[in-house]
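quick one: zinc ion bound model?
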Amino acid sequence: MEDFRFNNKTDIRFGRNRIEEELRPAVQQFGDRVLLVYGGQSIKRSGLYDQVKGLLNGLSVTELPGIAPNPKIDSVRDGQKLAKDNDVDVILAVGGGSVIDAAKVIASAKFYAGDPWDLVINASERTKLAQVPVVDILTLAATGTEMNYGSVISNPETHQKLGTYGPNSPAVSFLDPTLTYTVPANQTAAGSMDIMSHLLEQYFDAAGANDVSKGLIEGLMRAVIKWAPVALETPDDYDARANLMWGATMALNGIVRSGNQNGWTVHPLEHELSAYYDITHGVGLGILTPRWMEFALNADTEALFARYGRNVWDLRGDDDQMVANQAIEATYNWIENLGIPMTLPEVGIADEKNFVAMADSAVSVGRLDVVPYVKLNTGDVVSIYKAS
Ligand code: NZQ
Ligand code: ZN
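yep, here:
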């Protein structure tokens, strides 16, 4: 096990309609000038927007609508200006991971004189800045951003989609599973895949003997595997939505990464797909994950793949290689049954012209030749893209 520091101060308010009593005081503890950040039409259609506006009645609320999936740096620039011009005390983010990710970077950018893209490229500088407190109401179970320090921001001009982190995780996160009843099937599937991928990235880790992490992850994976199909079948099943929501948060709030080396692989590969083709993050992960597994399985790794097969998929048998292969097949089938397209051409990536540039960038951004459980060079990444 590696040394680690674990420090997370996010105040989680989990359950049905807690915002009715708790939103206003949660926001107002930081002041009366609020920047309300949200995405497209989903919170207007569901009625959540009207409810939130009613609850904040009398406070000074400035709005930043239109945060797109794979949030773009231009939205962060707009938010920086609004946050400075209105000297906001607190940011309220209402939406999925994209909205909350953008809000967290805007929270830093208020205290930065230059272009916020600098804060994405250079996160260690960002952690030295102050940050406006972020309160959020999560509407989609996937990223874990509601309880972590990270954000992922895209720059379409440079074909970059990069992770950054700030000095704080959100101050208060409202997790109401009923708010995810309206998430469409394709986003429910993609979100569930994202949770599963976060768990896999931290399970297949180069640190030795971290049975605490592995055991926690195995339990969380079993929960996602069980409840994602239920949420797809019955979108208003509370138990399914609740398990996915808390599972998403637990998968990436820092607990299961503690003691790991934390070299991720499939995420850097996927971020290149989203950067070049603006595809849904969880869909890209669904396509790449089984191909990465096939690539990564070898004599050195088969024992861990077999453990995954036995403890997560209930596979039996003494032959590690056989169980490992069955585990990869089970993973593929689960993803396919969620309704996720399983090849790159199906999501419009029909030629290979950008594969080398994407692979080069993935290796350098993710330090894939140094940190992961199975190290990859540019040629390895290209072959995974080609197999997808
Ligand atoms: O824009 P609106 O109208 O709100 O619609 C959104 C959007 O179109 C819709 N949606 C959200 N909640 C809904 C809903 N529709 C109906 N009912 C609801 N309750 O869903 C669509 C996707 O939303 P988005 O926020 O983009 O999804 P997600 O939460 O999966 O976030 C994905 C982004 O997070 C990044 C991804 O790369 C991607 O940019 N990630 C962030 C991480 C982090 N901060 O720790 C880690 C992850 O690995 C990931 O990279
Ligand atoms: Zn992810």
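The longest helix spans residues 211-233.
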